[in-house]
Amino acid sequence: MNTPAIGHLSRNWGALNSEAPAIVINPDASPLDLLAWCWGEVESLHQVAKVCDETGMDGEALGAVFLHRLAPLSAVFCDAIQSMVREKMQHQAAQQQGGAV
Predict the structure, then answer these.
(1) Is the CB of residue 93 less than 8 Å from the CB of residue 42?
(2) Secondary structure E strands in 35-95
(3) Of 2, 13, 24, 65, which sees the most CB atoms within 10 A?
(4) What are the tens digits of pLDDT across the range 5-42?
């Protein structure tokens, strides 16, 4: 897993190396750690939306903020869920083989 922790707003730089982005989600992070990061991102976006609603922030700027943050958030959610599914399947396979987990 080499999931960038930044969104589309940084992709306008031609020299960026998508194979080794500057900031990535820790590939050794547990699914719970990944979900905790996701919760923090969702909460942050919720606060941004509240401030924008209260101040009348430009819709285009708000859209850019959300789009920039949602792509990595979605990818990390996916990574966490896939990891938990793999762990569950491994656990079930071990139980079927009579092994302890």
Answers:
(1) no
(2) none
(3) 65
(4) 666 555 555 555 566 666 778 888 888 898 898 888 88
